[in-house]
Ferredoxin--NAD(+) reductase (Thiorhodococcus drewsii AZ1), 489 residues
Amino acid sequence: MSYLSLSRAARLAGITRSELQCRIRRGEIQTFEGSIAVEDLLRAFPSTRLDDDSALERVERIKREALPKREETETRLPDAQVLVARLHGLSEGLANRIAELDATKALLDETSERLTGLADLSSSDLPDALDATRDWLVERRRQLDADDTSSNRTRLFVNDTFLRIMAANVKLIPSGHDFFVEGNESILDASVRAGLKMNYGCSSGNCGDCKARVVSGETWRIRDHDYLLSEREKAMGYILTCSHTAVTDLVIEAAEANKVTDLPHQRIRASVRTIDRRSPTLISLQLRTPRTQTLRFMAGQRVQLTLANGESRELPIASCPCNGRNLWFLIRRGADAFSTAIFDTVKQGQNLEIAGPHGTFILTEDTTDPAVFIAFDEGIAPIKSLIEHAISIDMIESFALYWETRQPEGHHESGWCRALRDALGNFEFIPSTGDAPEQIADQIAQGRIDRDRHRFYIAGPAELVGRMISRLTEMGIPEERIASERLED
């Protein structure tokens, strides 16, 4: 029996991984050691056109537009479009031949069993038995020609073969996480894009922190690296994941950061890339790190920003860890020297220091539980980071974002929220202006909330967050299902 990884099965069926996991949790699809049998996939999606993934492509396109771009690692096709078409044709021809071969083998086995039975018959019974065998062969051939299951299986194999050419599936051990490497991207870049936290330092081949051992499969070095592997390491299959791509499906032994203490404390000199004035009192600041230094952090965490004049402030990162070189922050004008400098003197191209990461306001990633995100004012910054990361790992069953603000710029990220709502059938955006935490909690209670399954992530001014938590616990939400980030006023 053939098995598929969850990521590949979801792609072939034209659904998201989170939807597939939801069906598994409901018992509609069985798994074996984290994989799905081809027959079970076809049984669960009998009417799915396995050669038509246009709907999923549309969702992926909108998601790419809604999430931050990583222009230095844009996915590219391995070759021209004509090569793609030819490869798909070859995949289809190969699939047809393999399907015919499998059917022939099965028919030969059945025929062998029947012929063995004929040998024990008497001469008087043999003619009738031969006629019956001939009729059986004719009917069996007719069944094979009309077998829709075989046709579906062949189409699945066509898509799987083509997908293996265009995107290799990489499985990490011991965690069992898997992701796709597309086009010419490195294994490390693909893992970061998928929201995973493999070890790395410079991401350019200098430090060796991204060293991992290839257990099975083939890789290809796409760039030279200064870090030297020992001969023993080479013989054991070690590579630098920042400098290699996947040729075939891979199994890799690699360390991953599972908790905030697994990440190193980093100091990076970054430059101001853009200063976007959302209102007279709010700036969206984008910083860019050097090519050899990518900030490693978990969604929802904070860093300390220090200006050239020594003024500093700790701020939550408002962007996804999948792009650790381009970092976004929301800064409100206040009476402090740091925000005054940001608004009045800091210019594009100036340098500042990033130190961190800090904080434990992170996503619970080992579950598909539905998530409710609640942001008050600038609390949207860490909440935005959490949501973008949740989308990249494609694990959570459903999302709901409640954003309450009384600031003059209003819901300044509403375009991003609408883009996600259009792309994801499981994303809900509920903006409000002037509602108290208790009123928002009442709105949540009116929805279909499972107190034992939903998880809540709350960020904003300390007083509002505290009131929100109190109201949720009064509603019977367990405290362990509530994560919060209380921002400085």
Remarks:
- The radius of gyration is 28 Å.
- The domain at 167-253 is CATH 3.10.20.30 (Ubiquitin-like (UB roll)).
- The longest strand covers residues 266-279.
- The first helix runs from residue 6 to 13.
